[in-house]
Amino acid sequence: FCCQPFVSILRGKLSNNGHDMRKVIHSVKVGVALVLVSLLYLLDPFYDRVGENAMWAIMTVVVTFEFFTGATLSKGLNRGIGTVLGGGLGCLGAAFAQAVGGVGKSIVVGIVIFVFGAGVTYTRQMPKIKKKYDYGAMVFILTFNMIVVSGLRADQVLELARTRLSTIVMGFAVCIFISLLVFPIWASDELHDSLISRFELLARSLEGFSKEYFETSNEKEQKGSANFSSNCKSILHSKTRDESLVNFARWEPWHGKFGFSYPWGKYLKIGEDLRDLTTIIISLKSCLRSSTQSSETLRQSVKEPCQAVVSSLAWTIRELGESIKKMRKCQSEETIVPKLKSVRIELSVIVNPSTIGTDLENTDGLGLVS
Amino acid sequence: FCCQPFVSILRGKLSNNGHDMRKVIHSVKVGVALVLVSLLYLLDPFYDRVGENAMWAIMTVVVTFEFFTGATLSKGLNRGIGTVLGGGLGCLGAAFAQAVGGVGKSIVVGIVIFVFGAGVTYTRQMPKIKKKYDYGAMVFILTFNMIVVSGLRADQVLELARTRLSTIVMGFAVCIFISLLVFPIWASDELHDSLISRFELLARSLEGFSKEYFETSNEKEQKGSANFSSNCKSILHSKTRDESLVNFARWEPWHGKFGFSYPWGKYLKIGEDLRDLTTIIISLKSCLRSSTQSSETLRQSVKEPCQAVVSSLAWTIRELGESIKKMRKCQSEETIVPKLKSVRIELSVIVNPSTIGTDLENTDGLGLVS
């Protein structure tokens, strides 16, 4: 449990793998943030001011420091807002309980805790809240409860809330500083790169399919197939990851090529279109598995036009990916679409074109979206 | 922010929707757990024994009480193990720093915090650890840090760790008691039901496709299509949810029809097969959108055998779903497979069977899996 990470770190440093290197950078950043925030405890001048509340700064760093800068920002702000709201309402609740006094005090506190606990827990489960503010709602319940019950014992609830909040802000500041300024790891870059790489994967899958279909030997099939399927499935199951990355990317400030109000929503839309295309390629692939295959002569007769279409399609997909990568309008769109259409008509003369026709239909759709 | 949940609770109670009712139950359970754990603060005999550490019990309830019993168990155990390990190693680290003494003490603490913080953060990012022990690793870092830095100030680190741990155990006990014994919401039930409902959805999608294909009017198409697509996509994007439900279900003790070492892994496999089938139906569907369609006469000539195949397939899928629901071996498997095969041969005489043949191929696969 303890040695493994260090072995892995060494291995990560030796390999040139970008993702592993980022993991190492993230780990070192977390380590540095923890040391910085521990200084509140270690150095006497700091400790004299914040005391035991320094604990909350450590907690904030451990809990909010995430891999992507956007995730750290989103979690930190959620925590901040949750703490302020929970603390504020908690103070009101505690003051109200104090005003009641006597045995009623405890009863009022119990009722208030139940009502807010159950109510906010219900709110947390609404899909919209769950997606963006789940963590904030949890922190709200936590802070609210603690302040309300502390109010019964401590005389200065407000003072307690203030110091606690200030240490949380310190912890958050350390997180933001290190996460934003020291080798930032952007969710936006990750999303952008993963979308572009999916275009390449799709083009390669399409070419792989055509190669396999027109190949006569069955030997090479097995190896390529597994690779092909895993490629396609990785595109197909990208939805959840895309959504969370977009969620983080929205929080990230202007940086590199991504300006303010960058249209992140379109990434979701393009991702959806890519998944639709992948569905078709996967189902084409399953035709290969079928026991009833079209005859060798028929295959050979459509080989040339089919391969022409496939290579045009693959080229188009790559071109679209490239234009997203370079963030420019796809220039070849006007030339490629009529070309593909003419090849399709040529094809439909030769065979019943239901399957291949579909492909073209969808690529047109993709061209319009991008 | 505050009124919405109560309005929703009322609406949830009025509607007969099972899922909404479960959400209300969960919210009430969380409320009750919070009140119970707050008694540590509210009642003097308790408070005299645990003091400010009662805070940790509240935190444990807020953080570990999840919707599904399995999730609560998994998070609670992660928290417990993380606290024990982090606390233990933290005590060792603090003792070591004390032994060094002087200025070196703070430096040793700083180095120890950095090494453990960075190392465990790196470990957290490994896919296997991230999936199951992410929360435990986070709690480990948190507890370790707190104990190590507290060790510099407090004289009795061990006493501190002991009280803190005992309040965490109290909080966890309240969570487990309420989560397991009061209207438990099982992840296993959810997984089981969602798998069965996907069989039904798949059968309905298949029937919807055949109806649409053989219908001559284009009017009804639009409405059915949207429904059809969203059904299929909900099956296609079930992977992440399935995986997390299986993860929780494994933690759940024997209950209802699910015994110990129930084969939850097979749910993932069947889910994967259902997604493969859905891929094919979606791509069949996109044939409808294609501009080049087979002629009306050709369609009418294959209408009867095609509809026979589709209804047999839909029946088979429903039968398989039903047998999973009732947890018995599917009895009609021996009769249905030869029947489907004979219909397929019949069909392949009439048309080029590449698309429809695929369907049958895959259903055979499904039959073998279940």
Please, what is the oligomeric state? Answer: homodimer
Structural class of chain A: mainly alpha
Task: Provide the low-confidence segments of chain A as ranges.
Answer: 9-16, 353-370
Mean pLDDT metric of chain A: 80
Number of helices of chain A: 15
| Beta fraction of chain A | under 5%
The dominant shape of chain A is elongated
Instruction: Give a count of the beta strands of chain A, DSSP E runs of length 2 or more.
Output: 0
Most residues in contact, chain pair and counts = A-B, 83 and 83 residues
Major beta sheet of chain A, specifics? Answer: none
Q: In which range does the helix fraction of chain A lie?
A: over 70%
The radius of gyration of chain A is: 29 Å
Cα distance spanning the termini of chain A: 47 Å
Write the element-wise H/E pattern of chain A from the N-terminal end onward: HHHHHHHHHHHHHHH
What's the helix and strand layout?
2 copies of one chain form a homodimer.
Chain A: H1 3-14, H2 18-42, H3 44-50, H4 54-64, H5 69-100, H6 102-124, H7 127-153, H8 157-181, H9 187-214, H10 221-236, H11 239-249, H12 264-289, H13 296-325, H14 333-350, H15 354-369
List the keywords.
disordered C terminus; mainly alpha; 370 residues; 15 helices; homodimer
